[in-house]
Amino acid sequence: MAEDTEVKEEPVAAAAEPEPTPAATEAAAPAAAAESAPAAAEAVGGAAPDAASPAGEASEAWEAGEPAERILNQDEIDSLLGFDLSDDDAADRTGIRAIINSALVSYERLPMLEIVFDRLVRLMTTSLRNFTSDNVEVSLDNISSIRFGDYLNSIPLPAILSVFRAEELDNFGLLTVDSNLIYSIVDVLLGGRRGTAAMRIEGRPYTTIERVLVQRMVEVVLADAQAAFEPLTPVTFNLDRLETNPRFAAIARPANAAILVKLRIDMEDRGGRIELLLPYATLEPIRKMLLQQFMGEKFGRDNIWEGHLATELWTTQLDVRAVLDEQVVDLRRVLGLKVGDTLVLNATPDSLVELRAGQISLTRGRMGRRNHNIAVRVETPLSPAAKTAIQGGPP
């Protein structure tokens, strides 16, 4: 019986002190490292810093000879990535997001377009004052470039989208009126009291009266836009339709780039925004004009350059040939010509002489003599080929 008791006690003793498993070894390693950290800090020459104090960590790292590391908080990380912006400032992105967006949309600077929209702001200020009989202030928020699909997704609803056609450019544009301006215009035109905010009723479509009043305002804005483009090029903007669903206002492919102009309209304590979107395809026919720095001779003339150009033109040498007659002769006869042979021309003393510059026929005249020189008196006007060459076209 004693031998059986001893045999049973051996497994119990072995179970009381099991061998360490790999998992237990790994779990014990961080604890050992944590215990050795304060000791290492004390060995360096100071007390262990508080784990919750970044300043303590930086000071201990500096005393240990290591460079201090600055930890960014969440606000700084969001600002670096560009994701801490509100909806109003979505166009002015910063950080990494701005770099990504700049690669998506290549914005080509059009100096003349900025002048056109500055002129539009001045014209709208006057026309909307006459339209509403109220004190209206129009300001230009910004001009940016955006993908058409991104713009449709960013339109705050409810809104009225006006699709208009540029006749001379043979393409479309989009004018968006937000709900604040819609209710403000209705309130102003129908005699609402000043000092009270425009009543907004959510969850219902716009009534016929509201759509008609907004359509009249859109027609006024398009007339001003037409007048703003007039010094640059004649463009006629005609209202095509009004839409309340952005899906029905698709005038370009979602990936196409467009110019977005945001205008702010303030009527004392009321107002809203108008956004004018013009696809690059619409502006392509007048792209060269929009790349100019000024409107050429519309604003004045460069007398110095004109004088220099006139001087150079008057001193230019031009070879002009007077052709009496032309004949088609066999090559055998030309090779057989000898000194003293006579060629009979089909011209009389009264025949007109043709004046040529290179291969271009200029005019015709009659041959004569002036003093001791042979002269030609011009009898006919310039030929169409000469006029085309002077104007810069192909001869």
Summarize the structure.
The chain has 395 residues and is an alpha+beta fold. The protein has 14 helices and 10 strands.
Write the layout of secondary structure elements.
Layout: H1 2-16, H2 22-44, H3 54-63, H4 74-81, H5 95-104, H6 111-132, E1 137-147, H7 148-154, E2 159-166, E3 171-178, H8 179-189, H9 208-229, E4 237-243, E5 257-267, E6 270-279, H10 280-283, H11 287-290, H12 303-314, E7 321-323, H13 331-335, E8 352-357, E9 360-370, E10 373-378, H14 384-390
Antiparallel strand pairs: 1-5, 2-3, 2-4, 3-6, 5-6, 7-8, 8-9, 9-10
Helix pairs in contact: 6-9, 8-9
Q: How many DSSP E strands?
A: 10
- Identify the CATH homologous superfamily of the domain at 107-298: CheC-like
Report the structural category: alpha+beta
By CATH, the architecture of the domain at 107-298 is named: 3-Layer(aba) Sandwich
Rounded to the nearest angstrom, the radius of gyration is 42 Å
Instruction: List the total number of helices.
Output: 14
Largest sheet features: 6 strands, antiparallel
- Characterize the overall form: elongated
Order of helices and strands: HHHHHHEHEEHHEEEHHHEHEEEH
What would CATH call the class of the domain at 107-298?
Alpha Beta
Mean pLDDT: 76
How much beta, percentage-wise? 15-25%
Distance between the termini: 131 Å
CATH names the topology of the domain at 107-298 as: Chemotaxis protein chec
